[in-house]
Write a structure and sequence with these properties.
By secondary structure, the protein is mainly alpha-helical. It is built from 30 helices and eight strands. Helix 3 packs across helix 8 and helix 6 packs across helix 8.
Length: 702
């Protein structure tokens, strides 16, 4: 009984922290209409800042607390609201979600960059020198007592603020209808600022309270938010009492699992994954119309032509040939993952771009493809590659079943929970038997991965594996483009626009979602297998949730509806990291920070970078004089670099300069042509095929 009471006290103190953090989530969502994925990261930064002030610089604890909670946290909240969230407030739910995911990635990268993760930073609990408070057979430390008292005070203050003050009424009214709230005299901007300041302050309080009980690690502290997610979902993102109840359930569950879970090799990960499992169950067990909200501000999905798709696939293969002929073998190893990661990034296009289903577990599913190929294709058996694709597709089909009930941020939460379950539990399991079949994953370590046997040729060199990945990326891009042009692709676009209309017109909602999830997961599994071949050895940490967020951000920045997203994402994800790798180990965090900053700039180009690049460089493609000149310069640069006459760096600089100069010249010509009167088309400037269509439309309009 004494042990049970001790675990109950620990669970309640942890629950108090989750309640504080979860109430901040509910506050932000209820008043600003944004679910903040970076809420835990804000608390993590507050914990690091508090350590720096109180321990690193020796400030008095009250002064350090006041500085973090009353200065740094409000300033951070104001910055997030003004710089990041206000520009995307009028965009869709997906854009706001991506912005908070970018903020989460950026905060983790920033913390690792500023504070060396290899250095231990212990924090003492509050009033650690005082004896514990005895409550019968149980004892409560002063830190636990302070934590519970803070949770009760937060609950009372928030209830009074939201229901008994004008500011709270403004905050609740602004999220329902900002324009109508403004007509009644409320100030939506002021309400949003207040919501973000209070939300970040609550995250800071939770981060400082929980930091003494766990390791001060950027990733671990940021992912503690999963437990607060569960508490917030218990409250359906709007009820503070239910949020506190959910926090109690999560806190007690973690404490009892830590104390009473049987000790064996299969269950320790279950305790770590329990909050994610509970989150997934809560999402499915609490049906509510707000959990099924749809995004009405949709970005147009480009329609690729058959000719353009073939040209793009040829460009992928040409780029691969250039890389293997110009780069040294060690550079081929470093940059070879461009194409395999491009296949994984391409898996977002049919799922998120065509269907509007946001998934944060694609890299985790890619890990399944890598480990399946590693075991089944240990000797290069080619049949193991389609087996890896099919098993990954089956996992995607399983994920699609709850996706029928969820959408938007709730689907993102569900897929994130699935990724955490894989990371913390499934991938950590030792080998086990299912119906007489031996199932082996990462074996609590690493898995060796080799290349395939292709028509009697064993592909093991970095050059061969790079070319193989490039071929698969080209074929996958052609398949995704054909999907967009086909009937099923049009049905997916209709599903994205309106699930109700899709079902009314005879579409099978469950079948379509299962098909697109399986297709996307199969692509991710293929990319994971190719990625593992190039790495030669894979571990579970390479496919966890935090590792997958930057790749997701790069795909979003590229444009989730564009077929070129795969290649662009692979290049943008790999090349900056490799270029910065020579600067030191901190360069990896800097590259992740740059990716996060690019994601934060989404408001300036919601459709993505790839469609903009296509539109800008399309002018050069139509130039009959400049394009041959540019192709000749590029061929000359490649020839000089391949023969060793010129090193790759200068050749690349010359090629880029020539391309930019030709494109600028083509844009200048296009601008001059627009100044020519219609009657002089074909005289003062060349006649173009599209000119006839323009004139026909103009005369028809009259």
């Amino acid at each position: 009984m004494d042990q049970f009471l001790a675990f109950t006290v620990v669970g309640l103190s942890t629950a108090a922290i989750y309640a504080v953090i979860g109430s901040g989530l509910v506050l932000t969502h209820t008043t600003a209409g944004v679910f903040n994925f970076a809420h835990g990261a804000a608390g993590m930064l507050a914990a690091f800042s508090y350590w720096q002030l109180a321990v690193g610089w020796g400030w008095p604890v009250p002064l350090a607390l006041a500085t973090v909670l009353l200065v740094l946290a409000p300033a951070f909240g104001l910055c997030v609201e003004r710089v990041l969230m206000r520009p995307v407030q009028l965009l869709g739910e997906a854009e706001r979600l991506v912005m908070t995911v970018a903020l989460l990635t950026g905060c983790i990268a920033l913390a690792r960059w500023v504070w060396d993760p290899n250095t231990a930073r212990p924090l003492s609990p509050f009033f650690a020198d005082r004896p514990a408070i005895r409550l019968g057979p149980a004892s409560v430390t002063w830190h636990q007592a302070v934590t519970m008292a803070v949770a009760v005070a937060v609950a009372a203050v928030l209830w009074v603020l939201l229901h008994r003050t004008r500011a709270g009424t403004e905050m609740r009214a602004s999220v329902d209808d900002r324009a109508l709230a403004g007509l009644t005299g409320a100030d939506p901007l002021r309400a949003g600022r207040l919501a973000w300041v209070l939300g970040i302050q609550l995250a800071a309080v939770g981060g400082i309270l929980i930091a003494p009980t766990v390791a001060l690690d950027a990733q671990q502290l940021s992912l503690l938010i999963v437990s607060a997610y569960t508490a917030a979902v218990f409250g359906r993102l709007r009820s503070l009492p239910l949020t506190f109840l959910g926090a109690v359930v999560v806190g007690l569950l973690e404490a009892y699992l830590a104390g009473y879970l049987p000790q064996n090799d299969y269950l320790p990960g279950l305790r770590l994954a329990a909050p994610a499992l509970l989150l997934l169950l809560a999402l499915l067990a609490f049906p509510h119309r707000r959990l099924r909200g749809r995004d009405r501000r949709l970005v147009r999905v480009p329609l690729p032509t058959a000719r353009g798709s073939l040209v793009f696939a040829g460009g992928v293969l040409l780029l691969a040939l250039v890389l293997v002929t110009v780069l040294a073998e060690d550079a081929v190893i470093s940059y070879g993952t461009v194409f395999s990661l491009g296949v994984i990034a391409l898996s977002y296009v049919p799922l998120a771009g065509y269907t509007g289903q946001i998934s944060l577990c694609q890299l985790s599913i890619a890990g399944i493809g890598a480990v399946v190929w590693g075991h089944l294709g240990a000797h290069g058996e080619l049949w193991a590659l389609p087996a890896a694709v099919l098993i990954a597709a089956a996992v995607g089909a399983v994920v699609a079943v709850p996706a029928l009930r969820l959408s938007g941020i709730y689907l993102a939460l569900g897929t994130a929970a699935f990724a955490v379950i894989l990371d913390r539990w499934i991938f950590t399991l030792p080998a086990f038997d299912v119906l007489g079949v031996r199932v082996s994953l990462f074996d609590q370590g690493s898995v060796a991965v080799t290349g395939p046997n292709l028509f009697g040729l064993r592909l093991t060199s970095p050059t061969q594996l790079l070319l193989l990945a490039a071929v698969f990326l080209a074929l996958a891009s052609l398949a995704v483009a054909a999907l967009r042009r086909g009937r099923f692709g049009r049905r997916l676009i209709a599903l994205r626009d309106s699930e109700a209309a899709f079902a009314t017109l005879g579409g099978r909602l469950l079948g379509a979602k299962i098909a697109v999830f399986a297709l996307s997961a199969g692509l991710a599994g293929l990319g994971g297998a190719l990625y593992g071949m190039q790495l030669q050895t894979v571990t579970a940490e390479q496919f966890d949730l935090v590792a997958g967020l930057p790749l997701f951000l790069v795909a979003v920045v590229a444009g989730l509806g564009a077929v070129g997203t795969g290649l662009f994402a692979g290049v943008a994800f790999v090349v900056p990291t490799q270029l910065l790798a020579h600067a030191g180990s901190w360069a990896h965090d800097l590259s992740a920070l740059l990716i996060a900053l690019a994601g934060m700039g989404l408001a300036h180009s919601p459709a993505g970078v790839v469609p903009r690049l296509h539109a800008e460089w399309q002018r050069l493609v139509r130039e009959r004089t400049l394009l041959p000149v540019l192709l000749g310069v590029l061929a000359l640069c490649w020839l000089l670099a391949a023969t060793g006459a010129v090193s790759g760096g200068p050749a690349l600089v010359v090629a880029l300069a020539a391309a930019l100069a030709c494109n600028a010249r083509a844009s200048a010509r296009r601008a001059t042509d627009r100044d020519v009167a219609v009657e002089w088309w074909g005289v003062r400037r060349p006649w173009r095929p599209e000119d006839g269509e323009v004139l026909n439309r103009a005369t028809a309009a009259r």
